[in-house]
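About this split. The held-out portion is used to measure sequence recovery: a designer receives only the structure tokens and must propose an amino acid at every position. Recovery is the fraction of positions where the proposal matches the reference. Here is one held-out target exactly as it appears in the evaluation file.
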């Protein structure tokens, strides 16, 4: 009996030892898999045309990975302009060393191993781009759609540089007028209930009449109280819809009319804003600002550079005007009068006339 008991105990001990050893091996294997570096696979590309008006397009490169890695990009000018992306944290890469690319954003991408931890992608660009024209980021696995960890590179096609050739005078010029806000967006509202969208439209229609009398063709983003893109649109959709109208009409200049507002009701004055995409944007803002100041006799709040969407995305020289402050009781009262609206319209038109004269003297061209 004692021998049988001892044998049973020994057998159980042997099973436990073997089980523990097997579990240790399994844990070691799982730990190895868990800690193993990811592998990069399947470099693919797609070419996306996203703006028929401006010719905008985007090249997207995607590299699949079996696990998380890091990626950073930078522009280099070696053997022609290149975008270089370093992917770190991968053990190996099953990717072609050279891949030809379709479209007119980039010609090819070359993959090379820098060290045991880093893979470099060198994208040969078709045209020079700026840092704002590309983006490198990673995406987490999408198990629902059977997508692994991914490195994504988006490269926007370089926009064609504008080629301006201006002549003096307003006759035959195409002027895009953009009355700010409208429809579901009232803009700023004064103490007396004055809505910005109503004032901007009233002034824009007066500008339109004066320009047409001078022989110009006027393109309006809106001629009544409505949303340009449509109800419940995002801010970007609404603003892009306005610049699309000007861009499609191949307007010579773009003028967006707004009314300012501030918490301090004593603040007032007229201001103009531009985005420095050419030498002519600042010139346009200065001449329109001078015309409004001369006509309206309101304090000068200056000409300022800003990244307002409409002046940045209009393909032609563009200015955004702030006629006065609706939050200022005295200026709200002025803005409600037809005489002031007419004076500001005349000032804008005079500024446009001066702009075309100065632009023609400058000779056209780009910065």
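Reference sequence for scoring:
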């Amino acid at each position: 009996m004692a021998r049988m008991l001892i044998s049973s105990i020994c057998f159980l001990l042997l099973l436990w030892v073997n089980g523990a050893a097997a579990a240790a091996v399994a844990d070691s294997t799982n730990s190895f898999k868990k800690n193993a570096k990811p592998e990069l696979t399947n470099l693919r590309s797609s070419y996306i045309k996203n703006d028929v008006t401006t010719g905008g397009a985007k090249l997207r490169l995607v590299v699949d990975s079996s696990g998380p890695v890091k990626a950073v990009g930078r522009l280099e000018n070696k053997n022609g302009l290149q975008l270089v992306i370093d992917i770190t944290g991968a053990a190996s890469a099953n990717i072609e060393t050279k891949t030809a690319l379709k479209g007119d954003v980039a010609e090819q991408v070359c993959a090379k191993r820098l060290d045991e931890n880093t893979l470099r992608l060198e994208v040969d660009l078709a045209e020079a781009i700026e840092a704002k024209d590309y983006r490198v980021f990673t995406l987490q696995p999408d198990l629902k759609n059977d997508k692994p960890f991914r490195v994504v590179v988006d490269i926007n096609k370089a926009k064609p540089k504008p080629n301006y050739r201006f002549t003096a005078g307003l006759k035959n010029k195409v002027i895009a007028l953009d009355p700010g806000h409208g429809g579901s967006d009232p803009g700023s509202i004064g103490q007396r209930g004055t809505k910005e969208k109503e004032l901007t439209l009233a002034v824009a229609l007066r500008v339109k009449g004066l320009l047409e009398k001078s022989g110009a063709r006027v393109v309006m983003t809106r001629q009544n109280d409505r949303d340009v893109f449509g109800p419940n649109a995002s801010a970007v959709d609404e603003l892009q819809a306005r610049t699309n109208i000007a861009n499609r009409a191949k307007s010579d200049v773009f003028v967006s009319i707004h009314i300012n507002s501030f918490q301090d009701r004593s603040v007032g004055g007229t201001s103009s804003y531009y985005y420095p995409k050419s030498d002519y944007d600042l010139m346009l803002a200065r001449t329109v600002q001078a015309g409004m100041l001369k006509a309206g006799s309101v304090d000068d709040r200056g000409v300022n550079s800003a990244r307002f969407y409409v002046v940045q995305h209009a393909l032609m020289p563009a200015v955004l005007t702030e006629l006065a402050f609706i939050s200022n009781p005295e200026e709200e009262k002025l803005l409600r009068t037809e005489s002031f609206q007419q004076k500001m319209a005349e000032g804008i038109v005079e500024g446009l006339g001066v702009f075309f004269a100065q632009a023609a003297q400058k000779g056209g061209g780009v910065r």
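Annotator remark: The longest strand covers residues 39-51.
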